[in-house]
Amino acid sequence: MYEFDQDQQFDYENDQLREQIAGALDLISATEIDFEIGTRFDSLQDYELDQAAQDLESIVREIETNALAQMGRCPCNFKWRPEGAGYRCLGGSHFVNKDEIAKYLKVSK
Hints:
The protein has helices at 2-71, 98-108, and strands at 80-83, 86-89, 95-97. By secondary structure, the chain is mainly alpha-helical. The longest helix has 70 residues, at 2-71.
């Protein structure tokens, strides 16, 4: 009878361990899925933010280019090209920073 009780106890402990292991595996699986979904969502958000930033940069560049066209060429009649925080004439002697372009846009409205 003692052996039966010991075997029964052993089976009970094994069943408990199996349940704990199954629960742990479910938790690990759910955590991996949540992590994967979170990572993909973060990547998608990063992509969308990058795309929005690029779109905004293109719009700003177009506005600045249009403003420069309205302002005209440099005093030596050269066109403008983007450089750093503004635009330099192709002759290299003149520079218009983006703040000056913004002021022009405010005044010309």
